[in-house]
Design a protein that fits this description.
With 375 residues, the protein is of the alpha+beta class. The protein contains 14 helices and 13 strands. The protein is globular and about 55 Å long. Bound molecules: MYO-inositol-(1,3,4,5,6)-pentakisphosphate and adenosine-5'-diphosphate. MYO-inositol-(1,3,4,5,6)-pentakisphosphate binds next to α5.
Length: 375
């Protein structure tokens, strides 16, 4: 197949998968961003795009996420990892299963404005959700890799003192309050300050709307998916993941009679045990900000401004996956999703990744504990 055809197919696939139709009318213009991109609406952590000197994540007008590859060796490690996992010639069961836990990978690309920068083109996990509640949870007791020097180790260790005990840490989140109809943002500074006894109620609890009406439905869906990931980790010895995250998303905007109604009842009862106000924390209120939603970009139909490297094996896999899916399916009744992201520190150590597994099991235990709280 000639490379040009492959490129068209890939773009077509991305548009199909990401429901470009639905995005055409609200794709805002911003002369400061690369053509055909906006700032992702729901990025809760990580490197944010601030221009040439600080590259981060962008959202392409076809809906996919473009992640700027960081400087080597971190960036190259992540690109190589995605290429390995999404290699269509791969028949390894461990890798095939892992693929389903990751955002789909559509190859790497370059933007006209930054031709020397490699971008990973990824499925946007948050896209199917109308009012996404999103949390980035960095996994592992130890978030520095085997090649880290003393300065990096010190930096990581002081960042979140309880990580050794919990095996996971929040790095940023946003929640949607269905009563106030507002999205609330919690930045990394808030997350790092969560004490040992606050993690369950102020961290996970705030995320799952414990104060008003615990989102048991979302927790149950996520638990199921997390147990699948756990069982993969329990047997695989191929990869060790340091400083990698789980991105948990659930729909904050549920149909009135399904979710909002009981929440409002609960909200108005002082003795309901659910609390009479929202998060009730000034700190949280201070974190409210609309910047995550201010997405501007050049409006353009010229998707040729993005050049996709020819990586046929990656593409054919994606196309196969897409065949069964229509863009309508993407804005369906998805309740929740979780994917593994951020692979800048993946190593092959030939052993069970106890570091990650410990955190994952503890996260699962904490979610189960949330479900056990009286409603
Ligand atoms: O790039 P920076 O300066 O924002 O630092 C990154 C950290 O941001 P911070 O400033 O601590 O909030 C960043 O921390 P968070 O993930 O935001 O907690 C990471 O530690 C990142 O290291 P790595 O990519 O995981 O190896 C850090 O990258 P390095 O300092 O290791 O390059
Ligand atoms: N595939 C994706 N879909 C949707 N959002 C994503 C995706 N990948 C990353 N993000 C958003 O970007 C943030 C940072 O991503 P990450 O890969 O950890 O970048 P970094 O290497 O800069 O830390 C995540 O917390 C999440 O909000």
């Amino acid at each position: 197949m000639p490379p040009g055809v492959l490129t068209d197919l890939l773009v077509e696939a991305c548009l199909h998968l990401c429901g470009k139709k639905g995005m055409d009318n609200d794709f805002p213009e911003n002369p400061h961003l690369p053509k055909g991109t906006v700032l992702p609406r729901n990025q809760v952590a990580g490197h944010k795009h601030e221009g040439r000197s600080k590259l981060g994540l962008l959202q392409h007008e076809d809906g996919t996420i473009l992640k700027a590859s960081q400087k080597p060796p971190r960036g190259t490690r992540e690109v190589d990892f995605y290429k390995q996992v999404f290699d269509a010639t791969c028949t390894d069961k461990t890798i095939l299963q892992l693929r389903s836990f990751l955002p789909r990978f559509f190859g790497v690309c370059h933007l006209e404005e930054y031709p020397d920068v490699t971008y990973l083109k990824l499925e946007n996990i948050v896209y199917p959700f109308r009012k996404p509640c999103v949390v980035d949870i960095k996994m592992g007791k130890r978030t520095y890799d085997p090649e880290a020097g003393p300065a990096k180790i010190a930096k990581e260790v002081t960042k979140f003192p309880y990580v050794e005990k919990f095996g996971f840490q929040f790095t940023g989140m946003q929640t949607y309050d269905p009563v106030e109809q507002k999205t609330k943002f919690y930045d990394k500074f808030f997350c790092r300050k969560l004490g040992e006894d606050e993690l369950l109620k102020k961290g996970l609890g705030a995320f799952f709307n414990l104060q008003q009406c615990l989102r048991r439905d979302a927790i149950q869906v996520l638990l199921e998916k997390l147990r699948e990931i756990e069982s993969w980790f329990a047997s695989q010895t191929m990869f060790s993941f340091y400083a990698s995250s789980l991105l948990l998303v659930y729909e904050g905007d549920m149909p009135y009679n399904n979710y909002l109604s009981p929440c409002i009842q609960c909200h108005s009862k002082e003795d309901s045990g659910c609390g009479s106000s929202g998060c009730g924390s000034t700190e949280l209120d201070q974190n409210e900000d609309s910047s995550g939603c201010t997405c501007e970009s050049d409006k353009t139909d010229d998707i040729s401004s993005i050049s996709i490297e020819n990586s046929s094996s990656v593409i054919s896999t994606s196309l196969n996956d897409i065949k069964t899916e229509s863009s309508e399916d993407l804005h369906n009744d998805a309740i929740a999703d979780v994917r593994m992201i951020d692979f800048t520190h993946v190593f092959s150590q030939g052993e069970i990744d106890e570091n990650y597994l410990f955190g994952l099991r503890n996260l699962i235990r904490n979610l189960e504990m949330l479900l056990e709280l009286p409603s």
